[in-house]
Amino acid sequence: MTIKPFSFGEVPKQTRCRWFVRRGATTHFDRGFRAKGDAGNWIDAMGTRLEWRAGFTFRLQGDDTDIAIVDRKGDVAKP
Question: Is residue 51 part of a domain?
Answer without folding.
Answer: yes
